[in-house]
Predict the structure.
Amino acid sequence: MDVDDPEPQHRHLSHLLGLHPAALITSRGTPELADACRVSLTRRGDGGTGWSLAWKINLWARLHDGEHAHKVLKNLLRPGHTLPNLFDSCPPFQIDGNFGGTAGIAEMLLQSHVGNVQDGFEIELLPALPSAAWPVGQVKGLCARGGFVVDVTWENGTLHGAVIRSKLGNDLTVRHGDKIVKTKTQVGKTYRFNPNLDH
């Protein structure tokens, strides 16, 4: 039975744990469920306490919506939510907003929740980049599932290159948009990927 939510903009988002932090719902694997998550997030709105905003950044990033993730990130960082020393203010202080917001930024730039040891791990580069807000940039040392350390650079809102170091020698799939490269890796070796994902 369909029942109206008496608090549609409630800060809690636990019903979306299949999207994040789990990987039971993905835009490519379960698009109808991902669309349902999008509807729920839209109804929840872009406000909330620091920890709730941090969750929303991560959830929008998992839906590959960098512009919306960035909008919520700006809400998290505005005066009243973040203090001058960058502590998250709930009030008075809530470390969840700091840790979750930082995790959300990483999730916008790199995702690795798809894959496993048997089938190989997938690293998606710049899955939710807000290209207008962050047209040029670089990030170094992001840790991805499967034992990979990733450096990424981008220019004009698009991938410029990536360097991936394998710590465990697992099989690797690198994705950027619809482009995919699969490779075997060796422990300690470094792999470079250009914008066309030819390695």
Q: What stands out?
A: The helical segments are 31-44, 50-62, 66-77, 95-109. The radius of gyration is 18 Å.
